[in-house]
Amino acid sequence: MPAHKKKKAKKNKRDFAGELLKTVRLLYKFYLTTPHWKAVRMRRLRAAHFQCEECGEHKTILDVHHLHYRSLGREKNKDLKVLCRPCHKDAHAKS
Ligand SMILES: [Zn+2]
Ligand SMILES: [Zn+2]
Question: Could you say which ligand is closest to the alpha carbon of residue 58?
Answer without folding.
Answer: 1
